[in-house]
Structures are given as structure tokens and as C-alpha cells.
Amino acid sequence: MSIIVKIQAIFCKKFAQSLDTFGFIHYLCTDLSHGRTLRGGQPKLGSITFTSGAFVIFPPRSTKISAGETISNETTKNYVKSITTFDFPGCKCLVICGDIHGDFNMLVNKVCVQHQLKDALVIVAGDCGFGFERKGYYESTFNRNNKRMREANNWIMFMRGNHDNPAYFDGKTIAYKRFMAIPDYSLVKANGHTILCVGGAISVDRVYRIKSWNRIVMNQRQFGHYHDEHDPLAPNYYWKDEPPVFNDELLTHILAENTIDTVITHTAPSFCELKSKAGINSWIREDPNLVADLDHERSIMDAIYSKVKDSTVSHWCYGHFHQSWHADINGILFKMLDIMEFYEIR
Length: 346
Prior knowledge:
By secondary structure, this protein is of the alpha/beta class.
């Protein structure tokens, strides 16, 4: 069972205005000590009700874990309760997309015009481009594209990559009817599939990006402009909490409660392409810790694979490497997506 917690009317109004959220908003309370979930019925007077054909389940109390942070036992104990589930009962087509690097307009055009998708959910597997501009830029971009997406009844979900500010991916900062940036370890249910989404990766160009941003900040200060270092959404070129996070206990709980058939990550396990580091020798010379960090990044994906390999997972999609490749490995079809490449999971 689960219980839908009512939200007071005064809060509903502010919440709806600030998020323009989609579907029905459910607050899922899970009693882990008894291994059961309490659930009630339809929201009544004083609750938020939407009609876009999707609903989201947020935990009643979430513990924010930054990507790359070492998770203590106590933190994990709290975080294990914070599973966010997005359900799209109206979805009839599920598509995974490679990196888009900020080209949101082209993505919408490709979805709605080039491929003329209808009732489709598109999940971008990281490197969306959040964080290089101010938040208002993304809001205006989505507002401009909202009509086209609404008329086709399509949705786009964004996972974080290494060219994204992780602060945008809390499930609330970008949470519109047709566009949403989701947290790591989110579950997405659409078109008969249950998908696990885990973002994050290491930037091979991080030294260059840090130096470039520092030069911009210095130039701004010369003209009396100061970068707000305390604003988590302030524009930047690099975010130190970019790596993926392995949360063993949370993943164990997810697999125990759900039948997952698809995994989407930004990077990939070590046995998948791209394996060679020959193309990044120039970055390695500038960054003495890069190779070790890249190996650790892939080991995190290996750990996730070890948890899901004996489950019902049949597909694993990822981007990051700007190439296209696929292979069946131990019964799982691994698919690497090039920039703006589409892959439909039927």
C-alpha cells in the first residue's frame, strides 16, 4: 500500500505556479522496516490535480546527495527511502537520445517535426547542457517549445552528464509538463518498460574548462561584476560533483521492489566501448589525475552492472563518447548513442 499525502491549498497554488508540474503528484511513503508501501486513492479537495497524462512519485522527505560525494552509512540509510518514480501511462513510444549539449531547440524539432513522434517519451542520456546559462534561459527555451510538445503529446526527460550542473537534476528545478531534469536513481515507467536512470561522468576537458571559467571571472571582476559563488545554479563551465555515484543499498532496494528491464547511464561499464584512451592523450598530459579518475568512473558502472546483471535487464543505453556502437553482452544489449542519436526501445 502507499498513501497520497494531501497538500494544503495555499501550498498547492505556490507549488503549481513555481513548477508547472505534470500529471498527478503523489508523495510515496515507504515503510522499509515492514517492507511495505502505504497507498491511498485519488487526490481530493486541497490537493494538486493535473491532466497531462503523467504522474510523479516523490518521497515525502528526500535527502540530497551530490554526485561524487562519499555516502556514509547513515546518509545512505536515509537516502534509500528517497526513490523518485515517474510514470507515463499515456506514453506509446519510448526513445533514448544521446548527448545534446544545449541544443534544446534542435531536439524538439527532431522529435516533433523530423520524426513526427506522438505520445512519445524521450530520455536524454546526459550532457544536456544545463548550467552554462542562467536558469531563465532554460525556462524561456522550454516555454517557447511547449506548444509544439503539447500538441504532439510528447515529453522529454533529462539525465545529468559531465557537461551539466548537477544542481539542476533534483526533480524540481526543471519540472515542467513536457520537460523535466530527473535525479540519479530515478525510475521511469513508460510504454510497458521500467527504466533505471543513473547519470554522471568525468570530463576529460575539465582542466581547460576550469581555466577558461577562471579567466571569465577575472575579466568580470575588472568591470565590477562578481560571480555569485553561493548560488548553486549560477553559470559555470565545470562542476566538481560530476562523477557518477554508486549507492549499493538504494540500488538493492530498487531491484527488490521493481522489475527493471532497461538501464540508462551517461557513461558505461569498463567492458563496453569506448575502451581506448588514445584520443585523449592531450588531456591526460594536462591532467595527471585524469586516468585514475576515468578508471574509477567506469568501475562505478561495473558495480551497477554487477547488481543488475542477474535481474530482468535486457537493455543498457548510454552516451558520453560521441560515437555509435552496440553489442549483446551476457544477454544485455548495450547501446552507445552518438550526439543527438535516437534509439527506440520497443
